[in-house]
Design goal:
- The protein has about 1000 residues and is mainly α.
- It has one domain.
- The chain has 44 helices and 13 strands.
- The strands form three sheets. The protein has a three-stranded mixed beta sheet.
- Helix 4 packs across helix 6 and helix 5 packs antiparallel against helix 28.
- The protein is globular and about 80 Å long.
- The chain starts with a helix and ends in a 9-residue tail after the last helix.
Length: about 1000
């Protein structure tokens, strides 16, 4: 009971972190209009803000993977919360566009730290049958954060309150070190090299590069809605509808991914992601180009946004994340998640600037001079149309590519999965034999640590055989299950405390995910307000997200190193502290440069957190439940997007004691992020860093230098990257994540339509609430389909989700009239869209990632995935801004507020948004098809690898308990010969020489 309660508590805290993470993400897009007015920023400038954060976040995902491996992942989540909270504070105090851009970049650091750690914690706390549901809940809570962030920012955007702008938060703590920093860095590099060579990983990264772009571009959605004439309240409602639909879609995708994975193990998850990504194209066309630019059609816009959010959000929980967990050993999961996020976030970081550039230079967006007079309705409508075209360009093309890239997984995923399973099987069997010998010898209590491969085979691994080195590394590092085994051998009853710790950690990791996404959503929610305050164009606003994404992508290797060397819970905490600090910097920034620097710093914290979260989630679930686990994680993330965007939208129109409401929103998110980071530091438990040891033989790792850790992580990363399923996930994720980033302009779009801040907040909250439930639903469906169709269930679910985004986005952005009186229609469409497009993560992506690698590699695979996938989505907001301004005729209002110009700008922004949604989701849906071939093989390989690692470690632990180790060596060699022929023995060690006992 104690262990179960701890696990529940961890899950609750992790989901809370996910809420705040998504709330922080949603906060800025919810107040794009207010930020744009305050910074005198165009949609291109507003998109640049998201690009800045996304770049930093993508760069920091390797850091998140390292932190998750080396430190308590709960602490990593807490650290990330502190970081993004600090960055959010910086945004709140910034007065120029540069200040906001810097603060958003700093925000990306904290967000990068949190996400992989949260996801890995959720994966660790769920099994194969419930992982989709777990990630569905995570997505639900994350979308709640998006709702809260967007709604809160919209509600108070126009208010002023009195807040002390000077806040200093210093967080530091000691982490448990097992190796020197150089050794661990060397291990991390080795692990990363191994992960990168996994074919499935390469495909998923390629997919993620395009699939993440539209999501990043969607940061302009609030601005597009506002330009069409939607009020802030209506824009908040519509964006909330989309967020809720995405949350439910993620949960649904995770559930369907699990179900299809059981029925069709080799193709179920892949098909699902292809459907999800392909659906984004028609849905985005309907939303951005088909619906009328009339704020009275809010109901129709909400309905389309709901359908789109419900359909296009399956890829992560249904396919990418689960497959990552299957194609690498357990210890490499943080690395693979960090690498994936690092790669994917780079291109996605350019989405906001690209949207802004397209809007201004391709579609005729006319920049508005914010802060004086009343906007022209005609010009707003023209700008909305330009921004809509830019958004659609940034969505349709990447989604189409993503859908095609998924097809490559059909051939690579089954092989990579089976390889990982075989490795785990061999390690598990060898470890069990050694544990039994240890018990018979009776001398196990006197030993402090035990290694497997270094004693049995002392020669160095060959440089070109990274997969064998990865098995070696995980056999050496694995130990998360040894305590329970020893207690059973001794005749003791397993304690209930680990289960309680697991649940508590999952809760905290999801909480960190909430805050991480809330921090990401905060700036796009207030793009207009930030642009006005910093005199920034949409392209410049998109550049802020690009700055954060670039830094975040660059820091993902650091995240992988931190996860390998330190407690992942501590890594998450540190990331939270970092992004909190960056958020504080954004809040107090007065220039664009200051904001850009703060957003870049924010990317460091975000990069630290994400791989640790994902690997913890993967480690806490099995193949049958991983989709549900990641569905819960996506739910938490969606809650974060909801809260961040909602808070930003609500506060954007307000002033509190003379302080702009959007700044107050950043302060609030930063404070809550610090609190979440503290909770993760003290209460979340990394299973690789148990709070107590039952004996000396069950210590998981020996003292290692940082260099050794880095080398092992490089080996692990190389193997993860070589997994075909991971490669497909990355390819899918690159395109599938792009629309989500582009949706940061949704709040601005709703406000341009004519919706008030309050209406915008409610609409955005509706969307993100729908994405929250969509993620939970997707995770549940993914687990169900994984049982019925093991090889295809999850994949089909993601393809449905991604494919549905295309028509739903078309209805929302193009089909609904630009009339704020149609708020109900906008809300319905947003809700349906959020419900359908949010399945991928919890239903397919996250559970499969946990299945295709051994348990120890889950942090690595999540970090790698985040690293790769975060690149392209970082460009989504700038791309939306560019499309709106350059392609679809968005024109900034230089003479004051014009209702007509706002409507025109809303139409431009809607078209830009749909372009950024439809194309990437179509590509994403196609790419998912490749999982049908690769996923079954990679899953079985990971299972076999897990058994091999377990047995090897148990054998070595038993031999280490005897005096006179040389006389035990013949027995160990004989046992190894029974389990493995000579060729397979070298496969485990990556060595041609048996060596001796070193």
């Amino acid at each position: 009971m104690a262990a179960a309660e701890a696990g529940r508590r961890t899950l609750a805290l992790v989901n809370l972190a996910a809420i705040m993470e998504r709330a922080d993400e949603a906060l800025l897009p919810a107040v794009y209009r207010e930020v744009g007015a305050a910074l005198h920023a165009t949609p291109m400038g507003l998109g640049a803000l998201t690009l800045c954060r996304s770049f930093v976040q993508a760069a920091c995902y390797p850091l998140a993977a390292y932190a998750a491996v080396r430190y308590n992942r709960a602490h990593v989540v807490a650290a990330g919360a502190f970081l993004w909270a600090a960055a959010t504070f910086l945004v709140a105090v910034s007065d120029t566009f540069t200040q906001v851009a810097v603060a958003r970049g700093l925000n990306g650091v904290g967000l990068a730290l949190v996400t992989p750690a949260i996801q890995s914690l959720v994966a660790d706390c769920s099994d194969d049958n419930t992982r989709g549901s777990a990630f569905g809940w995570l997505q639900l809570t994350g979308n709640i954060g998006s709702v809260l962030g967007g709604l809160f920012s919209l509600m108070i955007a126009s208010t002023t309150i009195m807040v002390d702008p000077h806040f200093c938060n210093i967080q530091e703590g000691d982490q448990l070190l097992h190796k020197s920093p150089w050794e661990e860095m060397k291990d991390l590099i080795i692990e990363a090299r191994a992960v990168v060579k996994i074919p499935s990983f390469q495909i998923i990264v390629a997919q993620g590069v395009t699939g993440s772009f539209p999501w990043s571009a969607l940061s302009f959605a609030p601005m597009w809605l506002e330009l069409m004439g939607f009020t802030h309240n209506m824009t908040g409602l519509l964006t909330t509808t989309f967020a809720l639909a995405s949350s439910l879609g993620g949960l649904l995708g995770g559930k369907m991914g699990d179900y299809l994975a059981v029925r069709h193990p080799n193709s179920g998850r892949i098909v699902l992601s292809q459907i999800s990504s392909a659906s984004a194209i028609p849905l985005a066309a309907l939303l951005l180009l088909g619906l009328p630019d009339d704020s009275s059609s809010g109901f129709v816009h909400g309905f389309v946004m709901f359908i789109m959010g419900l359909s296009i959000s399956w890829n992560g929980p249904a396919t990418n994340n689960p497959i990552f967990a299957e194609i690498v050993p357990e210890r490499s999961r943080t690395s693979i998640y960090a690498l994936d996020r690092s790669f994917e976030s780079v291109l996605a970081s350019f989405a906001p600037p690209v949207v802004g550039f397209l809007a201004e230079h391709a579609y005729g967006y006319n920049p508005i001079s914010y802060g004086a007079g009343v906007s022209n309705v005609g010009r707003d409508k023209s700008n909305a149309a330009a921004l809509a075209k830019a958004l659609y360009t940034a969505i349709a093309i990447p989604m189409l590519l993503c859908c095609f890239i998924y097809s490559l997984l059909y051939s690579t995923y089954p092989r990579d999965r089976e390889r990982a399973r075989m490795d785990s099987l061999i390690a598990s069997e060898l470890q069990q034999i050694e544990l039994e010998r240890c018990h018979r010898a009776g001398g196990y209590a006197g030993r402090k640590d035990a290694t497997v491969i270094d004693v049995e085979y002392s020669a160095e691994e060959s440089g070109d055989d990274d997969e064998k080195a990865l098995i070696h590394y995980h056999a050496e590092q694995s130990g998360s299950f040894s305590i329970k085994t020893i207690r059973i051998v001794m005749g003791q009853q397993p304690e209930a405390e680990p289960e309680r710790e697991r649940r508590r950690t999952l809760l905290l990791v999801n909480l960190a995910s909430i805050m991480e996404r809330a921090d990401e959503a905060l700036l796009p929610a207030v793009y207009r307000e930030v642009g006005a305050a910093l005199h920034a164009t949409p392209t410049e606003l998109g550049a802020l997200t690009l700055c954060r994404s670039i830094v975040q992508a660059a820091c993902y290797p650091l995240a992988a190193y931190a996860a390998a060397r330190h407690n992942r819970a501590h890594v998450i905490a540190v990331g939270a502290f970092l992004w909190a600090a960056a958020t504080f910097l954004v809040a107090i920034s007065d220039t664009f440069l200051q904001v850009a620097i703060a957003r870049g710093l924010n990317g460091i914290g975000l990069a630290l957190v994400v791989p640790s979260i994902q690997s913890l989630v993967a480690d806490s679930s099995d193949d049958g439940t991983r989709g549900s686990a990641f569905g819960w994680l996506q739910l938490a993330s969606s809650l974060g997007l909801i809260s961040g965007g909602f808070v930003g939208l609500l506060l954007a129109q307000t002033t509190v004691f003379g302080i702009d409401g959007w700044r107050v929103a950043f302060h609030l998110v930063a404070i809550i992020s610090v609190f979440v980071g503290i909770l993760n530091w003290f209460f979340a438990v990394d299973p690789h860093f148990p709070m107590s040891n039952a004996g000396s033989c069950d210590r998981p790792a020996s003292k290692q230098s940082a260099r050794q850790v880095v080398e092992e992580m490089i080996k692990e990363a190389k193997l993860v990257v070589q997994i075909p399923t991971f490669q497909i996930f990355v390819a899918q994720g690159v395109s599938g994540s792009f629309p989500w980033s582009a949706l940061s302009f949704t709040s601005m779009w709703l406000e341009l339509i004519g919706f008030s801040h309050r209406d915008t907040a409610f609409l955005m909250t509706t969307f993100w609430v729908a994405t929250s439930f969509g993620g939970l639903l997707g995770g549940k469906m993914g687990d169900f389909l994984a049982l019925r169709y093991p090889n295809a269930g999850r994949i089909v679910l993601s393809q449905i989700s991604a494919g549905s985004a295309v028509p739903l986005a078309a209805v929302l952005l193009l089909g609904l009239p630009d009339d704020p009186s149609k708020g109900i229609a906008y809300g319905i469409v947003l809700f349906i869209m959020g419900l359908f497009i949010s399945w991928n993560g919890p239903a397919t992506n996250m559970p499969i990632r946990a299945e295709i690698v051994p348990e120890k590699s889950r942090t690595s695979i999540y970090a790698l995935d985040m690293c790769f996938e975060s690149i392209l989505p970082s460009f989504a907001p700038p791309i939306v801004g560019i499309l709106a301004q350059r392609v679809y005729g968005y024109r900034p209002d230089d003479k004051g507020k014009s209702v007509q110009l706002d409507r025109e700008n809303a139409a431009s922004l809607a078209k830009a948004l749909y372009t950024s949604i439809a194309i990437p989701f179509t590509i994403c849906t196609s790419i998912y098809s490749f999982l049908y071939c690769s996923y079954p093989r990679d899953r079985e390989r990971a299972r076999m690898q897990y058994l091999i690692e377990s047995e090897l470690q148990q054998m070595e632990q038993g031999s280490s308990c005897f005096e006179g180790g040389d006389k035990e060596l013949p027995w160990i060699a004989g046992a190894a010969d029974i389990l493995m022929p000579a060729g397979e023995e070298r496969f485990l060690t990556g060595d041609d020489d048996d060596g001796g006992e070193g």
